[in-house]
Amino acid sequence: MPKNIKVSVLGDGGWGTALALVNLRCGNEVMLWSAFADYEKILQEGRENVKFLPGVKLPTDLRITSDLKEAVDFGDVLVLAIPSQYLRDVIFRIQSFSYQGKILVSTAKGIEKKTCLRPSEIIRSVLGEDLPIVVLSGPSHAEEVARKIPTLTVAASGNLKHAQYVQEYFRDPQFRIYVQKDLTGVEFGGALKNVIAIAAGVCDGLQFGDNTKSGLITRGLYEIVRLGVKHGANPNTFFGLSGIGDLITTCFSKHGRNLHVGRELGKGRKIKDILGEMAMVAEGVDTSLSVHQLCEREALQLPIMGEVYQMLFHDKDPGEVVETLLSRTPFEEWKAFDFSSFQPK
Ligand SMILES: NC(=O)c1ccc[n+]([C@@H]2O[C@H](COP(=O)([O-])OP(=O)(O)OC[C@H]3O[C@@H](n4cnc5c(N)ncnc54)[C@H](O)[C@@H]3O)[C@@H](O)[C@H]2O)c1
Asked: Is 254 a catalytic residue?
């Protein structure tokens, strides 16, 4: 294997920028693609991502472009760090360039509206089923990764060799990567924790205590497992970095955007006003709509995620939501699962 590789990071948000910095630290040659030419200019001239990752210097050896063809041509590996609702558009544009033979690393944590597809499914639906795709996920806030705070993640691919490739080339002492094969479970964990984080934020906004929030997160995990397993995920995955690991970070971190959305909702603010003043994307909002659509299709009841949808899309009052959830009859704690007999697909 070569000592270093060329990596193109598509997406100049907080996460794309942090991953570009990790790759530079690993000795790789890196190009960062911005979707907007005027913002590319700001990045080039100021060498700081003032909008999405302020306070972190961008070294001069980080190449920056807004020419998508140039970025696709450059990388041996293409990292997709684009929020899931914009991903399809970018993938459509990549279609006419030479992406064949390159490993695609998908990092979006969401589920597309209407199609209800996971990011890797969006990519495959446009670029073809046989692509080498690796999903990189886990408790990894950009703000911390960029500042070299030790972080543990997981690279998942149906073909373990592709995940190991990413592990080999993207890893440095502060960015540890485990591998595994359950891409479905890793993507469901990453997307659904954002919806639960909104609910956790509502608990904070209503000034509930640690008991309430811990209980909510635990029952939220149960809902994540239910939906994920129904789609073929391995239940064990949800007890790993991309499941409980990311759920904990998202529900407690000061960097959590979905947590912020929930907190403001809990204080009684309107969702339109909350989102209107955020530059960054809170993926849990759209994902909550996708989860609602999936549950309708599959006649599945997920009470917490259902109530988050009601608050976001039907202005249901958080106080009423609490009443609805607490008046449900409690049943056997993990009744739907017998993990020991699970057979991964
Ligand atoms: N920030 C994190 O810590 C983190 C960590 C892991 C995964 N992720 C995931 O990575 C993905 C990217 O998130 P982020 O935090 O870097 O985003 P961000 O909120 O920091 O930035 C938004 C990004 O969306 C881009 N964008 C806006 N409109 C667009 C359009 N029409 N077409 C293409 N791109 C457009 C912006 O240029 C910018 O790159 C998300 O799915 C997120 O869940 C984020």
From this structure: no
**Ligand 1 pocket, Cβ-based, cut-off 6 angstroms:** 11-16, 35-36, 52, 81-84, 86, 89-90, 107-110, 140-142, 280-281, 283
Q: Report the distance separating Cα 341 and Cα 345, nearest Å.
A: 13
Distance, CA of 196 to CA of 287 (rounded, Å)? 11
274 is written with which tokens? 């909350």
Q: Give the domains, in start order, of the chain with CATH numbers.
A: 6-181 (3.40.50.720), 184-341 (1.10.1040.10)
Query: Using one digit for the tens of pLDDT, what is the confidence trace for 217-245?
Result: 999 999 999 999 999 999 999 999 999 99
pLDDT for res 270: 96
The residue nearest atom 9 of ligand 1, judged by CA position, is 108
Q: Which H/E stretch holds residue 32?
A: strand 29-33
Q: What is the rounded CA–CA span in Å between residue 185 and residue 261?
A: 25
Q: How far is CA 136 from CA 34, 65, 260, 331, in A?
A: 20, 23, 24, 35
Asked if residue 345 has pLDDT above 60, the reply is: no
Residue type, 254: K
Ligand 1, atom 18: closest residue by C-alpha: 13
Task: Look over the chain and give the mean of its residue pLDDT values, rounded to a whole number.
Answer: 95
Q: Is the dihedral of CA 8, 13, 15, 20 positive or negative?
A: positive
What is the 12 CA–ligand 1 centroid distance (Å)?
7
Cα 73 to ligand 1 centre (Å): 22
Region of 28 (left: φ > 0; alpha: ψ -120 to 50; beta: rest) is: beta
Helix (H) or strand (E) holding 153: strand 151-156
